[in-house]
Amino acid sequence: MIIFNNNAFHLCTKNTSYIMAVFGGRLLNLYYGKRISRVPDIEQMLPISGPRIFSCPDINEGDISVSTDNLTVEYPTFGSADLRTPAFSARYADGSEVTRFEYAGYEITEGKYRPEGLPSVYAEENDTVSSLKIILEDRVSKAAAELNFSVFEDYDAITRSVKIINKSDKAFDIEKALSLCFDLRRSDFDMITLNGAWARERMPERMPLRIGVQQVESMRGITSHHENPFFALLDRNADENSGEVYGFNLIYSGNFVAGVQRDSYNVARAYIGINPQNFVWRLEPGESFVTPEAVSVFSDSGIGGMSRIFHKLYRERLCRGVYRDIRRPVLINNWEATYFDFNEEKILSIAKTAKQADIELMVLDDGWFGKRNGESGSLGDWVPNTDKLPNGIKGLAEKVNALGMKFGLWMEPEMVSPDSDLNRAHPDWCLHIGGRTPTLGRNQLVLDLTRKEVREYIKSTFDRLLGDGYISYIKWDMNRSMTEVGSAVGGAAAQGKVYHSYVLGLYEIMEYLVNRYPNVLFEGCSGGGARFDGGILHYMPQIWTSDDTDAVERLYIQYGTSICYPYSAMGAHVSAVPNHQVWRTTPMKMRGDVSICGQLGYELDLGKLDEADMNCVKEQVKAYKELSEVFHNGDLYRLLVPVGNNAAVNEFISNDKNTVIVCSYIIKGTPGAPHDYIKLKGLEAGADYADQSGRAFSGDYLMNFGVTVSYTSDHKSDITVFKRIKK
Length: 727
Ligand code: DGJ
Fold this sequence. Notes:
Blueprint: E1 2-5, E2 8-12, E3 16-23, E4 26-34, E5 58-60, E6 63-67, E7 88-91, E8 102-110, E9 129-137, E10 143-152, E11 157-166, E12 172-184, E13 189-197, E14 200-208, E15 212-218, E16 227-235, E17 245-251, E18 256-262, E19 268-274, E20 281-283, E21 288-290, E22 293-299, H1 302-317, H2 322-325, E23 331-333, H3 335-338, H4 344-356, E24 361-364, H5 392-402, E25 406-411, E26 415-416, H6 421-425, E27 445-446, H7 452-466, E28 473-476, H8 491-494, H9 498-516, E29 521-524, H10 534-537, E30 542-544, H11 551-562, E31 570-575, H12 588-595, E32 599-603, H13 611-633, E33 635-640, E34 647-653, E35 659-666, E36 676-678, E37 688-690, E38 696-698, H14 699-704, E39 707-709, E40 716-724
Parallel strand pairs: 23-24, 23-32, 24-25, 25-28, 28-29, 29-30, 30-31, 31-32
Antiparallel strand pairs: 1-2, 2-3, 3-4, 5-6, 7-12, 8-9, 9-10, 10-11, 11-21, 11-22, 12-19, 12-20, 13-14, 13-16, 15-18, 16-17, 17-22, 18-19, 26-27, 33-34, 34-35, 35-40, 36-39, 37-38, 37-40
Bound molecules: (2R,3S,4R,5S)-2-(hydroxymethyl)piperidine-3,4,5-triol.
């Protein structure tokens, strides 16, 4: 619900309020947090009688009692009166860089605002969603900003995107246009960010805010392994279950900044958007620019409460297509089984063994095309290597289909190898800067997706492969960060647009494909999880979480990923031991118990397993088919997080509270360690639940006494399923 009264805007979700007001021609934000039933006269909410501030700009001439340094400006601009980190700056025709946005009107509509050409959260017919557009204008430059908010009442989330319009008769260059920027009137927060590297993505880091700017960012052209466009601000004593937590996420797959500036007056300015580094967007008269969408949520039920809001919103209103709601196939992927060394016979033998375990989809990974027998060539030449696959992809796919399995294929569509026919034919199709030798990454170059002919080449490649319908799944990989980012087209004025135009080009291709091939399941991937973000999730409902498939490492990676993203989005594979990334050996049971919560797959030659392990695989696949509905559509409670505990316990509970799954993992056991009693969450207190062996427990027993976990041995895991007993 959005209420406009007495110059104040009140955006209410079920449990939160976001309040802005017009004051002295400026738009201020006054509050975000737990729902307030009625907004008082806004004078009450303004810090007018705050500390007198010397050397700071006055808001009204001759009145030094109010400074912009004390005001919480919505969408602050550079150089006029608010001298903290701005959300917006532009270089105008006269060389100046100062903007002062003033309030110029508003509009409230039913339904969701959708930023054109960009991925975003959407509303369905019966959702209670309304949108607010606030128009801000700079009288001198005639630059305007439309702040577009959408309020998801039942989901407890607010989305926003900004449209910048050039209403003047001269071009100007946008140098910074963030998606979200607002001030919280307190700064005694901790900040959580998700940081890492290849094979250890999204490790949560928690730090108290200090004065100044603290931010995460990417300048790699992709969201990256290293930092993620997410952060949370939370009470210093907030934990998984209690305390106030704000979460911010950008639905975007390119360069970003996400951070906080804590000022000297206990205000925390939170912001998120496109990274301004090498972003210069020329706006001709009449043109507009739309920022990616930012999502903000607030919960007073701790980090877990915040995560559950993101999870539900993303799995139900960000992911799309037929696979949003149906169980996705269990897959077998040949990458860690064969790497580049395979032929048709080998792939078929892997598929046949997988079929015995009722695995449903055979995915052929890298190395099927051109002359690719290693990491050094052929990207872009998407024709089957007939030395390995004499009957081509079609011939292999038909044989896999004849086994009663679906067939899927790996692609890396955004890349070109220097040693490829594509590069020889079109040497200027890669991102590069004339006169500079492009730096290679994994021996490859990035195609220039800002160019229409390149995007058409990629679309037609997919049309050729997917047109006949024998491919049901595509793993879309992207294996390098971008360097020397420039385009051979557009001249000097276009170069500051390349990073963002690339992402827009990527989204255009993905939008085309998901509309044209609605029954194909796409899985995102980027050297593991370097592009695990909401942008990709709008096109591809699952993303390969990490190249690290070790069960123990995965507990940490999946935990960190789940801070913002749902388990339904995480590709999770069981691989061989010793593990190929860390050489650790874990039991098949634990490997399966870790993967079963995500989108289950296998990435090994099952033909090499002994009978006991193969039986274990069969049980896992069977259990997954029964339980995935709860793992993927239920609520997650992280009862024990792996960091600092050498163990982890997750609870998944179905929306009707009829099924509760408790997954426990011991990373490092200690002989003689005491038992722990882990209290379950969110059950129906008065209901009775029975576990797999028929033992019955009341909901309040499980929530107050708990379940026992024993920490005595390494790599022990258990999955306990409690079902509500019908009385
Ligand atoms: C990186 C991916 O993350 C792996 O799963 C695999 O597909 C390789 N690329 C193939 O080159």
